[in-house]
Amino acid sequence: MTMAMMSIADALKSAIAEEMRRDPSVFCLGEDEDIPGGMGGAFTVTKGLGDEFGANVKIAKEKGFETKGLDIANDRVINTPISEILLSGVCVGSAMAGMRPVADLQYGDFLFCMMDQLVNQAAKMCYMSNGQVHIPMVMRAPCGATNRGAQHAQSLESYFIHVPGLKVICPSTAYDAKGMMKQAIRDDNPVLVFEHKLLYGGKRKEAGQLSAVGEVPDGDYTVPFGKAAVRREGRDVTIVANLLMWYKAMQAADELEKEGISCEIIDPRSLVPFDYDTVLESVKKTGKLMIVHEDHYNGGWGAQLASYVAENAITLLDAPIVRVAAPDCPIPFSPTLENFVIPSAGRIAEEARKLARL
Amino acid sequence: MSQFPNKEKALGMYKKMFEIRKYEESIYYLFLEGIMPGTIHQSTGEEASAVGMLYDLTPDDWMASTHRPAGHDIAKGIPVKAMMCEMFGKAEGCCGGKGGAMHTGDISVGAMVANAIVGGNLPIAAGVGLAFKMQKKNNVVVCFFGDGASNEGSYHETMNAAGLWKLPVVYVCENNLYSANTSISLTCCQKNVAADRAAVYGIPSEVVDGNDVVAVNEAATRAIARARAGEGPTILELKTYRHGGHSRNDACGYRAKDEEELWIKQRDPVKNFRKRLLEEQVIGEEELEKIEAAIEKEIADAVEYAKQAPLPANESALENVFWEG
Question: Which domains does chain A have, with CATH numbers?
Answer without folding.
Answer: 3-217 (3.40.50.970), 229-357 (3.40.50.920)
